[in-house]
Design a protein that fits this description.
- The complex is a heterodimer of chains A (323) and B (88).
- Chain A has 323 residues and is an alpha/beta fold.
- In chain A, 45% of the residues lie in helices and 13% in strands.
- In chain A, the strands form two sheets. In chain A, strands 1-2-5-7-8-9-10-11 form an eight-stranded parallel barrel. Chain A has a three-stranded mixed β-sheet with strand order 4-3-6.
- Chain B is 86% helix and 0% strand.
- Chain B is built from three helices and no strands.
- In chain B, α1 runs antiparallel to α2 and α2 runs antiparallel to α3.
Chain lengths: 323, 88
């Protein structure tokens, strides 16, 4: 017996090492899309292990039914997109992890030019970058279909596709989301996405900057993006900086949110979309409470970054107030 | 088996792992600059060639070649599994 074992020691050793590795791989990459009847998407973005640990423990208990994860590429100065090796595997692990927890998953695409918040891709490299981005977005539509992703945003923030409109150099963050370039690109990629992906497709919209710019009303009024074919329009009224950096009052923020949501719902109705989803929001409670209050009856989804910091409050809204 | 022999074998095994990481690192660079198609070629062709060459060669293999072939075979199996699942 021992002699036989000695004879096949390499093969035995191979399986002793390979099977646990196989087990780990299958664990991380197994999971089926949950059969949830969702009236409204309620969730949080994930990205770090800290956020996952909260999602693992409390997401279902707090009424969450979706998590959003973001795939990104870096755009270099020549307009070429670069992927971090291993990021695709990590993203798929995220998708399957969410499914194992019984949550739906929303994958958004966010190419990164420069550091920090999304910046405009310079005119001279834009055609190269956008062509490569198109290929990536289509490839990811196939990946999302294969792994059963429920919501897919081929572009999370449309700002990169166009020129930003700054109303004042010092007041930062007002950006124009409303330009022919956006319509062209989002409509250009949509047919090929629909060919490969059967889930719901969403598109970023809205005036980012949350009332720090006094041009937000103009931005929204001027917007001429055609969202036809997309299922939802998303909006990210982040508010962390409003109170402390810009001294924007809650009342001003409420006006901004109320006007934005009315406008976005108007676009959604005009273009045959199913509705509007808040893709990220957070900040001081008195600010993001406004979004819950103003969007209670009209929104089709709320994804808040600050859920795990203010669980009691968000649970009340997710479980008791929202459908 | 003497302590020296055990230590030398550990050293040889670590050397083999070093060769593997060198190959994986090179392929990460290929992946970054040229994309997954070239990275696949850059990984599968040399690894399969090395493994086949070592196992098919009839003459007595030393511990180094044995360890190298074993580690490469194991990594090849893991890579094929991941590739079939569509995660790389």
């Amino acid at each position: 017996m021992l002699r036989k074992i000695a004879r096949y020691k390499l093969i035995i050793m191979f399986f002793i090492l390979y099977l646990p590795i196989l087990g780990v791989i299958l664990y991380f990459y197994s999971g089926s899309p949950p059969d949830l009847d969702v009236k409204m998407y309620k969730g949080t973005p994930i990205g770090t292990s800290l956020e996952w640990s909260h999602v693992d423990l409390y997401a279902r208990e707090d009424g969450l039914n979706i998590v959003r994860t973001t795939m990104f590429w870096f755009i270099d100065k020549n307009g070429n997109l670069h992927e971090i090796p291993g990021i695709k595997a990590l993203m798929i692990a995220h998708i399957q992890h969410a499914h194992r927890l019984g949550l739906k998953i929303y994958v958004s695409i966010r190419p990164q030019y420069g550091l920090g918040e999304p910046k405009k891709i310079p005119e001279d490299i834009r055609p190269i970058a956008l062509e490569q981005l198109k290929q990536k977005v289509i490839e990811w539509a196939g990946i999302c279909e294969k792994w059963g992703v429920e919501l897919y945003a081929p572009i999370q923030e449309c700002e990169i596709l166009t020129d930003f409109k700054w109303d004042d150099e010092n007041s930062a963050t007002a950006r124009l989301v409303g330009d022919q370039d956006i319509t062209e690109w989002i409509q250009h990629v949509l047919p090929e996405i629909k060919e490969r992906y059967s889930g719901e497709v969403v598109c970023g919209g809205g005036a980012w900057g949350g009332a720090t710019s006094y041009a937000w009303k103009e931005i929204l009024d001027e917007c001429e993006v055609d969202f036809t074919g997309y299922d939802y329009i998303t909006f990210g009224p982040y508010s962390w900086h409003l109170k402390h950096l810009y001294d924007v009052t809650v009342e001003a923020y409420r006006e901004y949110i109320s006007y934005s949501l009315a406008k976005l719902n108007e676009w959604a109705e005009r273009d045959g979309c199913k509705g509007v989803i808040i893709r990220e929001m957070g900040g001081p409670r008195e600010y993001y409470e406004v979004v819950f209050e103003e969007g209670e009856d009209t929104l089709k989804g709320i994804i808040t970054t600050h859920w795990h910091w203010d669980r009691e409050f968000v649970r009340y809204w997710f479980k008791e107030r929202l459908p | 088996m003497t302590v020296v022999k055990v230590l030398s074998r550990i050293g040889i095994t670590l050397g083999c792992l070093g060769i593997l990481f060198l190959l994986v690192g090179t392929n990460a660079v290929i992946f970054y600059f040229f994309g997954p198609v070239y990275a696949r070629i850059g990984f599968y062709v040399p690894v399969i060639a090395i493994v086949l060459f070592i196992y098919i060669k009839k003459r007595q293999r030393g511990f180094f070649l044995e360890a190298l072939a074993f580690i490469f075979t194991l990594f090849l199996a893991v890579a094929v599994t991941c590739d079939l699942l569509g995660i790389v």
